[in-house]
Amino acid sequence: xxxxxxxxxxxxxxxxxxxxxxxxxxxxxxxxxxxxxxxxxxxxxxxxxxxxxxxxxxxxxxxxxxxxxxxxxxxxxxxxxxxxxxxxxxxxxxxxxxxxxxx
Length: 103
Known about the structure:
Blueprint: H1 3-14, H2 25-45, H3 48-69, H4 73-84, E1 88-92, E2 95-99
Antiparallel strand pairs: 1-2
Helix pairs in contact: 1-3, 2-3
């Protein structure tokens, strides 16, 4: 199944009274922060299953949040990718340091 179809299914599912469903973007954002904790825990444990589950939950919640805020998630991803695709840099102590374009 492609991303567009999965996205459509998630949006439909989110409108069918799922457990904990809400039309409040703030609540979806709070959920995302909770899932970020699960992702961090999985990364710390090197637990691939926990990481996979958390990433899946986050994408689902981002899709629902995008619906609530009327922001198309595919457009948002494409827009940000277009901003970063030419960036070059290094990661030092977990922080990305951008190399200026004129170098």
